[in-house]
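Posting here for the record, re: 2-acetamido-2-deoxy-beta-D-glucopyranose.
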Amino acid sequence: MASNEDKPAVKEEENAGSWKDAIFNPRTGEFCGRTAKSWGLILLFYLVFYAFLAGMFVLTIWVMLMTLDDYVPRYRDRVPHPGLVIRPKELDMLINRSQPVQYTRYVQTLESFLQQYNDTEQERNEVCTAGDYFDQEGEVGEPKKACQFKRSSLSRCSGLSDSTFGFAEGRPCVLLKMNRIIGLKPRGEPYVNCTAKRDTPVQMQYFPSEGRFDKMYFPYYGNKLHERYVQPLVAVKLLLNKEDYNTELTIECRIEGSDLRNNDDRDKFLGRVTFRVTVVE
Ligand SMILES: *[C@@H]1O[C@H](CO)[C@@H](O)[C@H](O)[C@H]1NC(C)=O
Ligand SMILES: *[C@@H]1O[C@H](CO)[C@@H](O)[C@H](O)[C@H]1NC(C)=O
Ligand SMILES: *[C@@H]1O[C@H](CO)[C@@H](O)[C@H](O)[C@H]1NC(C)=O
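Prediction output follows.
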């Protein structure tokens, strides 16, 4: 009886002993089956290995940066298509005509945005030939001239004759511009066409006339070379009436008349923009 009871106890001890040995064996000094020296070698190997990888990485990046030109992006056999953006940068506008404080922030945004288009400031820029690209040859790294775009050309949307950009009268202006893309030369005659997504059309007025982006503002040579460059703008004034109030109007604007893409399935800001406006009294 006694021996029967002892045997399992001995076995348990042995099992426990070999299990503990698997982690740390005090007789051989092995930890997880390896000696300290063996562990040290493994650690050293990985240290050298990863240091080598990191070195390769840094070297590759460095070589790549060395071959980059300061002025022109290196690879641009395919010039990307520009997005269309609006100012104020607000895709959901609520204009409460009896609360000027509320729409004043839109007005202020437009006013400060148009500072760079100040007529006096723009007179320092070139008077370019409308309808032609403003190609500028010259030495590599030579600064480029910029064509003038005066805010007064936005007429009723310039903020000069009407300092509230039409917001006070419930016929707001929004400004549209394309993203800057170096080297872009749109073919055709790009212009902005805005439509309201509803059955009856909304009357709109475009400035400059017909909402054209003149070719003379292309190509753009990049921030560094083309320091005084300003993007051409198109202003759209929504000629709303009292019947249009209190309903949310969805307006979609697209760049048409050119090879610029405006119907990309994946990017709904490529060559177009959709925003909502609600005017209340
Ligand atoms: C517009 O402003 C007026 C006056 O402050 C207010 O009574 C009204 O509720 C506002 N309307 C909306 C839709 O916010
Ligand atoms: C344009 O700039 C001039 C001076 O640089 C300034 O006197 C004038 O008030 C500015 N015009 C507007 C509309 O901001
Ligand atoms: C503007 O777009 C609408 C809807 O796509 C179209 O019916 C209209 O002819 C376009 N207008 C111009 C001037 O291209």
